[in-house]
Design goal:
Layout (H helix, E strand, L loop, with lengths): L8 E4 L5 E3 L1 H11 L3 E4 L6 E4 L15 H70 L6 H12 L1 E8 L5 E7 L4 H12 L3 E6 L4 E4 L16 E7 L2
Parallel strand pairs: 5-9
Antiparallel strand pairs: 1-2, 1-3, 3-4, 5-6, 7-8, 7-9
């Protein structure tokens, strides 16, 4: 039944609102989804369903309850699946963070243990050195110092240039060549070294000494090297 807007006074059976004309009722139906109305224009009330006329620009009102419920169920399932994926992702992130923390803790503990072992070993060597020195061991003090430095595998060198306030203090593996020390001086102090010398005991290292290792030159414990500049 097609009713004209000017002839209708429609009462919404869902929310009990009254609308003057079919257009107003159609708009309400589109916005709220209420589709059952009673025509109260005349003295006899008539139940009516509001339909959008084929000539109107409003979208046609189609209400398929099973289809709506199926669509709602599908949306709910998708939302639930998305929440589960997010939860799994968070759990994986937490698990990975715990694993990384455990690895880092293990690494730190290993470093602490290795450092303690090294310090204990150095302490034992020093005690042995003092006992040997007190008992007048046949081995010389120089030999004992060289043995201790060889165990450490690294020598600390303080490098100075005469007339230059700045100096370098660097650790070198004992198998490093003297040329590596000269290269460091050139890079950091901008000085070309022709050689090096020590104050005590007095020694000089030049020429072919640059191809020798620190261990071969007897530089196996911390010392000060004075740079001999190229003239």
């Amino acid at each position: 039944m097609q009713l004209h807007e000017t002839e209708l006074l429609l009462h919404c059976n869902t929310c009990a609102k009254t609308f003057d004309g079919q257009y107003a009722a159609e708009t309400h139906a589109l916005e709220e989804g209420h589709v059952e109305y009673t025509d109260i224009t005349g003295s006899t009330a008539t139940n009516a369903l509001v339909h959008a006329p084929s000539t109107t620009t409003h979208a046609q009102c189609v209400y398929d309850k099973p289809a709506e419920e199926a669509a709602r169920s599908h949306r709910d399932a998708e939302e639930k699946a998305a929440k589960l994926r997010d939860m799994e992702k968070r759990n994986l992130g937490i698990k990975k963070q715990k694993e990384d923390n455990a690895k880092e803790s293990a690494r730190i503990r290993a470093n602490i243990a290795a450092d303690k072992k090294r310090r204990d070993s150095e302490k034992s060597r020093r005690i042995a050195f003092l006992k040997s020195a007190e008992s007048g061991s046949a081995r010389s003090v120089s030999t004992l110092l060289q043995e201790e430095a060889s165990c450490n595998k690294e020598v600390r060198l303080k490098l100075r240039v005469v007339g230059v306030q700045e100096c370098i203090e660097e650790g070198f593996p004992i198998e490093s060549k003297l040329s590596a020390v000269a290269e460091l001086v050139h890079q950091k102090l901008y000085v070309t070294a022709a050689g090096f010398k020590t104050s005590f005991p007095k020694k000089e290292f030049r020429g072919a000494d640059f191809d020798s290792t620190l261990e071969e030159l007897g530089l196996v414990h911390s010392t000060v090297l004075i740079v001999i500049e190229t003239r």
